[in-house]
Amino acid sequence: MNKTDIINWLEQHKQAYTAMAQDIWNHPQLAYEEIYASDLQINTLKEAGFTVQQPINDMKTAFIAEYGQGKPIIGILGEFDALPGLSQKAIPDKEEMVKNGPGHGCGHNLLGTAGVEAVIALKEKMETDRMEGTIRYYGCPAEEVLNGKTYMAKAGVFDDLDCALTWHPMTGNAVMHKSMQSMVSIKFHFKGKSAHAAASPESGRSALDSVELMNIGTNYLREHVPDGTRMHYTITDGGQAPNIVPETASVWYFLRAASKEEAEDILRRVKNIAKGAALMNETEVESEILAFAYDTLPNDPLNELMYRNMQESTPVEYTKQEKEFALNLAKTLPTSGKCAEELLPAAISFKEYTKGNSMPGSSDVGDVSWIAPTGMVTTTCAPVGVALHSWQATASFGTGLGYKGMHLAASTMALSAYELLENKNNILEKAKETFDQVRDGKTYQPGI
């Protein structure tokens, strides 16, 4: 069984995995609540002959499915959580399926399913050819809150990997030559003193005023941080009623930077701003870190491998209806003047990773990339111009556009893992050398 056989197997079984992705899209669940998707994938993998370990570090929707024995150990990462408030029908007009319900606006219905598809295809090849080595599918919860893989890492489940492969739905076919940013998710809780806001305001100390003072201070900080740094927040507790001086108030921050070291320094400065706001207003403040994801470390040898195998995979062709969907969806975007071929690019892009070259986004894949060499690609799953975490993205990821990109990703990962198991050209050794170089002597320590 060679690569052609793997491609043929994927072609013969793609409808089953399209159905799985559609099923998960129809049943979106938020971080740590992804029971439907987790159970569906676990049952499918067990039926295919995988041994499943669940839960991981007390996370009920986290699991590992394994086949084979011995070295090398190749991991494929999967995700399946949805986003709040992004419910949307698979149509090119904004229309919720469930009012204010969740939706797969980041395409994780596709992301995890492609991993399942890839490892089962690879298992068939290993069984037929009696290949040595171990393949694992990691069912990773809660990527959208950026700590599922961190908790899995704390359990040590990635420590013995020779390498990991993953992907993400996007608007183009490419390898991830840019690093995603490190990110801290942190909540600040202020406590003051309540009072009648009209009769005795002098007796109160407004926790909400402290939150607003902190936000002002942080906004002034934006001028004095490295380019590309992001600091965004939402007030999660602003008091009970206007005529009561708020005794409690909370604000939730995401702090992003090119590296974990930069993120740590931004965190230090924002904490000082919070302390200053509390001091100015005679309130108290406490903080809790919810997530602290590392920046990702791209690996050129693995990316080159995945690039080549994406080229060898079955090319994607779009139907007339899919092109019309793309054109109609584009009318809701600034890119409405483009033709279908420009909206659904088939070209495959490859660029080598340059240290410090980061993109404005984050993922807990970063944690894994600091533990084992990690390769990552994106595929065209939505028209150019569609932003992740939007209703247009949810719509696209529930159509043939998303499913065709998913199958391309599954083929890319399966064919790449096949070569890694054979390791004829010392790909693993080259990937590990690059891994050591980009880490530059630093080791992984969980941020939470």
Short key terms for the protein model shown above:
448 residues, 14 strands, 2 domains, alpha/beta, Aminopeptidase, 13 helices, 4-stranded antiparallel beta sheet
Q: Can you tell me the overall shape?
A: globular
The number of distinct helices, counting runs of at least 4 residues, comes to 13
Number of domains: 2
Largest sheet: 8 strands, mixed
Q: Helicity level, as a percent range?
A: 25-40%
Radius of gyration: 23 Å
Termini separation comes to 44 Å
Number of strands: 14
CATH overall fold name of the largest domain? Aminopeptidase
The second-level CATH architecture of the largest domain is 3-Layer(aba) Sandwich
Strand fraction: 15-25%
Spatially, the strands of the biggest sheet line up as 1-2-4-3-5-14-6-12
Would you identify the regions where 5 or more consecutive residues have pLDDT less than 50?
Answer: none
Structural class: alpha/beta
Question: What is the CATH C-level name of the largest domain?
Answer: Alpha Beta
What is the H-and-E element order?
HHEEEHEHEEEEHEEHEHHHEEHEHHH
Q: What is the quaternary state of this protein? A: single chain
**What is the CATH superfamily label of the largest domain?**
Zn peptidases
Give the overall pLDDT as a whole number: 95
